[in-house]
Amino acid sequence: MAGLVIGKLTGNYPLSIAVAVGVDADHFFSYAKNGTLTSVKKFIKTSLAKDDPYGDQKNILHNVFVFVLISGVIFLINHQIGFIFSLAYLSNLVLDALDNSDYFPFYPSRRVNIRGPIEYASWKEFLIVCFLVVTFLLI
């Protein structure tokens, strides 16, 4: 939903949605490495779990330095695309920091683990989605 809101604000839905969702591609690297993709039951259980059983689902693409580096390079190449890319990327990181599942912003270092105030897959998280839907409809 954050990608849709950013897409509506910037007029570039494809980029906004692709980046906001694409940051989570590192989950699939973890799933592939740990055999989660070979079983539908295991995939559903793992993807809906509050805790990361492998400790690496939010890995390199969720590192804030990687965010700054990639966003900076794209911004230098094209300011408009870089701005949209950065907003969409940042929206994923901020929303991940809000829920109380593991988020290591300096991955692979696990010294800092951000667990936000919103319980993962809770009614509060649902309210955030509703807020984003209403925002999308109002702008």
Instruction: Write down the domain tally.
Output: 1
| Count of runs of 4 or more consecutive helical residues | 7
Structural shape: globular
Radius of gyration: 15 Å
What can you see in these coordinates?
The chain has 139 residues and is an all-alpha fold. It has one domain. It has helices at residues 2-10, 13-22, 25-33, 40-48, 64-77, 79-98, 123-138. It is globular and about 40 Å long. The protein starts with a helix and ends with a helix. The model has no long low-confidence stretch (mean pLDDT 93).
Write a brief caption for the model:
The chain has 139 residues and is an all-alpha fold. The chain is built from seven helices and no strands.
Topology:
Blueprint: H1 2-10, H2 13-22, H3 25-33, H4 40-48, H5 64-77, H6 79-98, H7 123-138
List keywords for this structure.
139 residues, globular
